[in-house]
Structure prediction request, 443 residues.
Amino acid sequence: MAHPRDDRQKDLFRPALEQIIDMGHPLVRLAQETDWDFLERRFGEVYRPGDGHPPLPIRLVAGLFILKHMHSLSDEQLCARWIENPYFQYLCGEHTFQHELRFDRSSLTRWRQRLGEERLSALLQESLRVAHATQALATKDLERVVVDTTVQPKAVAHPTDARLTHKAIEKLVAFAKANRIALRQSYLRVAKRAAIMVGRYTHAHQFKRANRALKFLRIRLSRLIRDINRKVEGDPILGGKFAALRSLAVQVRFQNQHQRGRKVYALHAPEVECIGKGKARSPYEFGCKVSIATPVTQPKGGQFVLHAKALHGNPYDGHTLAAAVADVEKNTGVEVRRTHVDKGYRGHDANKFRVWITGQVRRTTAAIEREMKRRAAIEPVIGHLKAEHRMGRNYLKGRDGDRTNAILAAAGFNFHLLLRWFAALLRAFCQAIFASIQHSQTA
Prediction:
């Protein structure tokens, strides 16, 4: 099996990072507290025996994922920050300051796809272990949790019939050019004009004209589908390539506003779902549902995320509660005794004697009522996940990308809380030293 390359001999005459950086920095403390051996065991499962280019060190890969979602950086921004920040390099296991990248930007994409949600959940588990070991999170905080769902929007434009039809025409023409299929007519120029006019007519409330322009687009899309079908008929290789695109184009051609069931909202991301959350400012969101769990208490280090999982198919919230509680227990190793949820979980599938719904009167005590008042504490956590840790717009591809982004956003949020916790401990330690010095001087 190929092992990571050992380049320490090249760094023999360079100063060590410990001589450059402040060893009291929160990132240094985080690097020291993290169990990298645990992450190496979990991530190392994807290694395959045989010859080939030596893989990246596990600590480097794990550190990059932590930094990316902790500071909400794109892959390009992460590469730029890593090459100029010695603390980033120390967290990733470097011994000396590196003046050039040890990895390629595309390596992050390949590692995300290779590891998947199951192995990347080790980052979330490790963040909770470090929080518990440093007393930022107590055992009692893990026994009482609040569970809620939100929408993880996908990086897609707002879907309209005219835009989707025009995009389908462009993709069909691009497919024909890539495979050297001679079309009778591409309709690109007239389709672009028709798509623009649909928007103008709709803005002017001239809906009959808008419908005529939309009908014009759909007719041209149908002609392209039939034309390419005739050209690829009898060629099994081209037919196989065209099958998926043809299915999407036909669905876009015949879907309408009032039909029931699955629809296509983005050609480059057909897995996107339309989810209505009842918000006045945004009645519908396009992406996938995500289940989130946090402590219902007030931990010293903050409201850590105990569970995050993308849920496809827009399931009913109550039917996801049992799996969410089981996932919390798996991540923390502590049995959940109380779960607090909102009224969207009525008719849930979990143990009803351990679940309390907002507004419930029966089986409540003074302590439980105080906890029920803190159920809304999960809402700002969801807001921070979306605004600061890349859950507000998911750029990763496919359903696997949805699941990966949700778990990495939760891990990044937890590691961000740990940095704040270590900084607070350092301030408290310095204040105690100064107080003792002043006390000795006055005495």
About this structure: The CA atoms of residues 188 and 211 lie 19 Å apart. The chain has three domains: 8-119, 122-155+272-426, 161-254. Residues 398-442 form the longest helix (45 residues). The first strand starts at residue 144 and ends at 153.
